[in-house]
Design brief:
By secondary structure, the protein is of the alpha+beta class. It has nine helices and eight strands.
């Protein structure tokens, strides 16, 4: 996943960078995800090379995968959803690309940059559990959330309590069993 600024580093002139991207798009080698966000296309399958987690992490400089999509990233659920939940300090409007709808959410704690993932940033396991409990009606439902939590190998109680404290919601504490 790359932006016009990334391409401009190699050309030095923004007009040349724009022209290069237009040529590559015309040849089917690059696909536009949204304004100023692009991905290369596989010559073998003609599909975008970037996966939904890489795209979600590149939407804004502070974007990261969260909520139910983070559960999918950790392999905790057996269903695949077509809504990709993305949290960011910078606001953005939801959009669709390659069959997935990228939905904005808000929060700012517990973010990990995953090594060797192509730039994926995702909420840690504890934060993902708290978000799933908090938004269970919107995202999955109680049965799915319980199933997802059972798939998590270990959770750090101190981190869970810290994320619950961030939300300052007594009902959320009760839903989480505290």
């Amino acid at each position: 996943v790359f932006t016009m600024d990334d391409v401009n580093e190699y050309y030095g002139k923004i007009e040349s960078a724009r022209s290069a991207i237009k040529r590559l798009m015309a040849k089917g080698m690059v696909e536009k995800i949204r304004n100023n966000l692009y991905t290369c296309v596989s010559g073998e399958t003609n599909a975008p090379l970037a996966n939904r987690y890489q795209i979600a992490s590149a939407i804004t400089p502070t974007a990261y995968v969260s909520h139910h999509t983070a559960m999918e990233y950790y392999g905790a659920n057996d269903q695949m959803y077509y809504d990709v939940y993305v949290s960011s300090k910078t606001e953005f409007k939801d959009f669709e690309f390659d069959g997935y709808t990228y939905v904005p959410c808000k929060c700012n704690e517990g973010i990990e940059s995953v090594a060797y993932s192509g730039g994926v940033r995702v909420t840690d396991r504890e934060r993902t559990v708290v978000d799933s409990i908090k938004e269970m009606d919107k995202i999955a439902g109680i049965e799915e959330v319980i199933s997802n939590i059972e798939c998590m190998p270990r959770l750090n109680e101190k981190r869970l309590l810290a994320y619950l404290e961030c939300y300052q919601n007594k009902f959320l504490y009760q839903k989480a069993g505290f």
